[in-house]
Amino acid sequence: MGNLIKLLPSGTVFMYQFVDPLLTNCGNCSSLNKFLTGALLILCGLSCSFSTFTDSIVENNKVYYGLATRKGMWLFAGSTSTDLSKYKLKFADFVHAALSLVIFATVALLNSNTILCYYSSLKSEHKTTLMALPVVVGSIASFVFAVFPCTRHGIGYPRSNTSDESSA
Questions:
Q1: How far is Cα 153 from Cα 150, in angstroms, rounded to an integer?
Q2: E strands in 61-154
């Protein structure tokens, strides 16, 4: 369960839900509100995806954050004697990024203010179908996250208590 929680874009969803009423004018959108809300959706989506490619290492009780690349981890600041080549990008990183983005999009686009802003003419029978979408997306994502567990400890994700510093 802890691995699933660290893969969900909860911080990004919280930020979106906090700012959304302001930008959507509580669902009474003008063109400017739609533009600003769209920009927020894009920024939050990018944040969601980017965070899955971050990782960290601990050396001498100091945490170093970096970005996983094809050759290994690129540290944001500082240097370390740890072999960074074992922190390479893997297929699972792209799966996690895509699913995190899908989860965020599902939650954000089905927010009541966003629905009123972008698709206010949605019929009530379609709303019922759309409300089942988070359950379906959550179930699929949970299954895939279980098949492709993540061992990255990126920005905003807690470090595990294990001594294994290898990354998936």
A1: 9
A2: 62-68, 73-75
DSSP codes, 18-66 = HHHHHHHGGG---HHHHHHHHHHHHHHHHHHHHHTTEEEEEETTEEEEE
Nearby residues of 58 by Cβ (< 8 Å), 6 or more positions away = 64, 159, 165
Quote the distance between the C-alpha of residue 86 and its chain's center. Answer: 23
**Residue ranges in the chain whose pLDDT is less than 70:** 1-9, 123-125, 156-168
Distance CA 84, CA 66 (A): 10
User: Could you give the C-alpha distances from 36 to 4, 22, 104, 117, 127, in angstroms and in order?
Assistant: 31, 10, 17, 11, 24
- SS3 (DSSP) at 67: strand
